[in-house]
Amino acid sequence: MLLRPTLRGWALGATGLALILLGIGMGSRDLVRLGAVALVVVGASAGVVAWLDAGGSRRPLTVHRLVLPNPVHAGERVGVEVRITSSDPSGRARLAGLKFAEQAATELSAGRPLRARVQRSSGVVLVSYGVDAARRGRWPLGPLVVTRTDLFGTVASTSTLGEQAEVTVWPTVVPLPTPSDVLIGEPDRVALGARSPSTDDASLRDYHEGDDLRRVHWRSSARRGELLVRSDERAGMRPVSVLLDLPSRGPHVEWTISLATSIALAMLEAGHPVRMLDGVSEHSTVTGVPFVHTRHDGARAALLDRTVDLEAPRGTTEAQARLVRAAHLLESTEAGGEIVLGVLGPLGAGARSALAHVADTAQGWAIVRSDPQHAHDHREAEFTVAALRRAGWRACEASPGEPLLDCWLRLLGSAR
C-alpha cells in the first residue's frame, strides 16, 4: 500500500504547522490548538485510510478477472470483466468509496488510460472494459489498482488487488484455398523430381499402446532409442512442413509469421499433418518437431500456440544458421514424400545448398521476400528464386506487406 497526503492534505498540514509555530511565537494557545487540530485531522485520516486498505491481508477482497476471447488474434478486440466481491460487512465497508484503475501492457492499451465502466451493488463491484490486441505475444493484464481517500480528501492510499492475468495474442491470419490438385498432383511430383511416396510413406510419431506393431519403423526406432511408428495418414494427406525464415528487420517479421501461419492452417484444415520449422532447437524434441494432426482436438489452437513465442534473429548470420538447421532437421527426420512450404528471405550460399538437398526427396514450394525499396535485397531475392527453381522447387517473389492471399495464389500459379 502507498499512503500519501493529497494536495489538500499537504496544504492543511502545512497550515497547521505554521499556526503552531506562529502560536508559540505569539504565545497564543488558541493558534497552537487550531494548528494541532489540523495536524490531528491529517493524521487521523491517514490512520482510517490505512485501516480500510483494500489490499490488506485482513479479510481480503476477492477478485475474479474474466478475459474473452483469450487467446485472440492480433487486431481483434478483447473484453475484460473484473468482479470484486466481499461477503462480510467489514469488507463491504472497505469496498465502498474505492476508485478503480486497471493496468495493461502497451500492446493492449496503446499507451492510453483504459476507459472502464464501473457497476456497484451490495458487496460487489463490476469493472468492465475492452482492449485491442495490437501485436502477437503474451501480454500482462492487471493487477487492479484501487485508490481510497478519506472523508475530507486529505489522504489517499493506493494498492493493488488480485493477480496479474495474461492475454495470449496469436498472429493475424487469413483463410487460404488449398487446391490439392496443384500441391500433390502426380504430374507435379514428376516435374519436381521428387520420388512418389508409397502408401506406407508417412510421418513418424511416438508409439502409443495399442498401435499395430507392423507399423513400427525399426530403423528409426533403433536410432532414436524409442519406438516410432508410421502415422496412418492416407497418401493423399502427406505431411506438411512449413519452413519459416524470419527476417532480422522488425517491420517484416509479423508479416512473415502471418503468411507462414496462414499457410500452415490452410494445410491443416485440408487434412494434412502440419509442423512449423524455424530452426530454433528449443522447439524440437528428440524425434524432431512434432506434427499437429487434424484428428486431435484443438489442433488449430496447438499450431497457433507454437507461433506466439517466435522471435526474430539478431542478424543475418543467425537467420541463415537457423534455416540451415531446419533444413538439416528435415533430412534427419526422413522427410521423404513431405510437402515443404517455405516463407523465406534472400538466401546465402550455405542455405541455398541445404535447401537444394531437401528437394531431392520432398516437394518444395517457397515464397521469397523481395523488398523493392532495397535494391540489394531485391537482386538477392531474384537470385534465390532462380537457385531454388534450378534445385526443383516451385518458387516466387513477394513483397512484405502485400495481401497474403495474393502471395499464396502467385505461388500456386507458379506450378502452371
Automatic annotation (TrEMBL):
Q: Which UniProt keywords apply?
A: Membrane, Transmembrane, Transmembrane helix
Q: Which InterPro entries match?
A: DUF58
Q: Which residues cross the membrane?
A: 7-25, 31-52
In its keyword annotation, does this UniProt entry include Transmembrane helix? Answer: yes
Residues in coiled coil: none
Keyword check for Transmembrane, yes or no.
Answer: yes
Q: Residue ranges of the DUF58 domain?
A: 204-248
Q: What name does this protein carry? A: DUF58 domain-containing protein
Q: Which organism is it from?
A: Cellulomonas persica
Could you read off the lineage of the organism from its UniProt record? Bacteria, Bacillati, Actinomycetota, Actinomycetes, Micrococcales
